Amino acid sequence: MASVALLGALALGLVACGDQYPNSTFNPNSDFNAAIDALWDKLLFWGTLVFIGVEGVLVYMIFKFRRRPDGGVPKQVHGNTKLEIAWTAIPAVILIFIAIPTVRTIFTTQAKATPDALQVEVIGHQWWWEFRYPQYGITTANELYLPNGRTVNFQLKTVDVLHSFWIPQMGGKRDLISNRTNYLWFTPNADLPSSAWNGFCAEFCGPSHANMKFRVFTVTAEEFAQWTAHQKQPAIFPALALTPPAAASAVAPVPSGTGSTPLLQVAAVTPPADAPAAPVPVWVFPKDKLEKEFAYTIPQTPITNQISFDEALIGTGDSERGRQIYGRSSCIGCHAIAGTPFNMAVVGPNLTHVGSRHTIAGGLYPNDTKHLSYWIKSAPHMKPGSIMPSLGKGVTDPKTKMVVNVGGLTDAEVADIVAYLQALK
User: Fold this and answer.
1) What gap in Å lies between CA 128 and CA 209, rounded to an integer?
2) Percentage above 70 pLDDT, the chain
3) What is the pLDDT of residues 359-400, one digit of tens each?
């Protein structure tokens, strides 16, 4: 028994000496987390006192009233009024000490957010996250930007099954329930440096529940302003460059170069009345800072061996050719790219600035050329249950069990589409 106790103590000591867990809920990085952490400390304090007291009395009773050869029959205390009152009153007093801070914290965290809060609509899909900023007219996916020191009010919705929105280091875990809008708010600490955090779905929602992740970037007010200014505009791409209204034209058919079927191409796009005269520079959370200081947020998911890709073609695609292939593929039936009138679907993630994101596939893979190539070729192989179909020619779709032939993309065409998507900054 002593050896087991010693081994347990050693294990606890080793755990305590380890590095800080990156997804800990005990770091008060927001007012929500600070309130929950303070409540936890109070409950742990009172719980420890109760444990020590009860165990102390128990050990005392075991030794004092243990059976002895010459011992008599113990005195019975059943029906003792004073004892009955004592062991009823003591737990009641303890519960009062627990209930008061608990109820106070519940009222604090369940209260409505301040009127000037940043509004963010969180929409859960199987299995990715959609984020909308109605005050800015921004829609993005799987990457959430929040300004430090400003309260954020989340409106939580789902378009399919139950999900649960959880950012451990920021606080709060709240369910997304069908036909209902739930709310959650918190304020990232104003003194936080620009940081990256992991987010998760915490409610089982299907075969890729564990793959439904997202990234949270808490940034300074100035950085958030730069990010929103960039996100509000159409994608920055040569064929979609903003031009003065007088020079703007509608959609014009142009030859595809591979046959007589015309393609829709945006020759120029008329900017909104409040749009800037020139494209706003791209600003996202710096990749070098992410790799050096927040590497734990970079996904390390291995690529499946169930599909193959000609890796000699990776990085060789042509973005303009990819734009044309994309425009005649099934991609336009699911995704939206602002500034392209033929591409406004809302089934899948908004791709307006997909080239500037750090992750793809619901935070499952890094957004680089290799992972994006495999993902486009066969998303269901890369992520179980993905509703995005296999697009690679000759691939057997794991859901339909059918081989993709007509309309399927060759590896060279996939490489071109990848070049186009990565150009959408």
Assistant:
1) 9
2) 87
3) 999 999 999 999 999 999 999 999 998 989 999 999 998 888
Report whether pLDDT(250) > 60: no
Beta carbons of 314 and 370 less than 8 angstroms apart: yes
Matching residue, tokens 């990234």: 215
The Cα–Cα gap between 300 and 198 comes to 13
Is 358 buried (19+), middle (13-18) or exposed (0-12) by CB count in 10 A? buried
pLDDT at 166: 95
Give the contacts of 203 (CB within 8 A, at least 6 positions apart). Answer: 162, 163, 164, 175, 176, 209
Tokens (6 digits) for 390: 């296999």
Q: Is the dihedral of CA 156, 159, 161, 167 positive or negative?
A: negative
* DSSP-H helix ranges across 204-286: 221-231
The arithmetic mean of pLDDT across residues 181-210, rounded, is 94
The answer to whether the CB of 263 falls within 8 A of the CB of 254 is yes
Let me know: does 242 contact 221? Beta carbons within 8 Å: no
Q: Which of 375, 363, 362 is nearest to 309 (CA)?
A: 375
Spatial CB neighbours of 40, under 8 Å, sequence gap ≥ 6? 26
Looking at residue 16, its pLDDT comes to 56
| Tokens describing residue 166 | 């959880």
Give every strand in the sheet of 195-201, ordered side by side: 143-147, 213-219, 195-201, 163-166, 173-176
Cβ proximity of 357 and 142 under 8 Å: yes
Residues 6+ apart with CB under 8 A from 27: 33, 37, 169
pLDDT for the residue numbered 77: 72
pTM of the complete model: 0.80
